[in-house]
Known about the structure:
Ribosomal_uL29, mainly alpha, 3 helices, 80% helix, Helix Hairpins
Amino acid sequence: MMKAEDLRTKTPDQLKADLVSLKKEAFNLRFQQANGQLENTARVRTVRRDIARVQTFLNQKASAQG
Length: 66
């Protein structure tokens, strides 16, 4: 799980890179779930929340600059 303090100190480029990797992981988890191979089902929820957390900080940084 990503901490808010860690995200606050990152640059928008770093946040975008985190977002890409989280979205890739979410895709892979959905694929595993569809095939019945997913062992840690709680990870899906955690990744979704991390994606939302990163997007929130990206939006805050964008509105602060604009």
